[in-house]
Specification:
Blueprint (H helix, E strand, L loop, with lengths): L9 H11 L7 E5 L5 H11 L8 E5 L20 E8 L9 H16 L6 E3 L3 E4 L2 E13 L2 E11 L12 H5 L6 H19 L2 H10 L5 E3 L6 E7 L5 E5 L2 E5 L7
Parallel strand pairs: 1-2
Antiparallel strand pairs: 2-3, 3-7, 4-5, 5-6, 6-7, 8-9, 9-10, 10-11
Length: 257
Amino acid sequence: MNNQKLDIGVGLIYRYHKLNYPSPTSWKLRLKHICASTEIELSNWIAENPVKKNQPKAIFSSSQNFAKGQVGRIWHAPKGGIWVSAAIKKECCCENNSQLFGLAVALALVERLERIGIIVNIKWPNDLLVDGKKLAGILPRLFFRGGKLRLLRVGVGLNVFNNVPTEGISLKQIIGNKKMNINFWSSEVLLAIERSLDFLDNTKFLRSQVQQRLWSKKYIDNETGYHWDIKGIDLSGRLIISKENREKVLSTSSRLI
């Protein structure tokens, strides 16, 4: 592997994907060197050509100008990172929420990183942290028709060798110049998205594995300053917290800090 490959290319991503993970899934890939948002680009693509079974779509961009993450937060996406939005056709029992899917993608990406010795924690609902700093963010969405799940969509941002803010960290900062191949890591993200579907078929295992990797065992309420104990992840992927024999469940509108 060319450890210094810094320019993203669809053909190389596809080649790495096929070499590392042969499967019946055949990704349809596009690359935008710069765009406002890969989420917008993906929506336009799907409107023109719907996603078919075993033919998921993904749009990569070298950089984005107006990307957004959870609850509308600005998603910084400069050149040197992996910025991708993907859609995959899947019928499963995710219920009408995206939280389990987001956690499944998070866990699958953690698996890929753990393979090379990186210790990664999950900051609920779906950020990945190394040494308390953000390495990756995940934005999941589900689309239903007639009450049935038809499409899984997810945006993933992974810091590779791009500049990051003080609260962030990149793979280059963690492992140096080795394995700094943007196409390899792009294929790893695709592998994680595929692997996440296996986790959705075994949600008990998914929840237990996420719980083991949670960044903190405490939840701090921003409004009151109270500290709550984290008890686990419920069947819908929500965070269960307790304090003085009282339990409550947090949705993704809440944040673990």
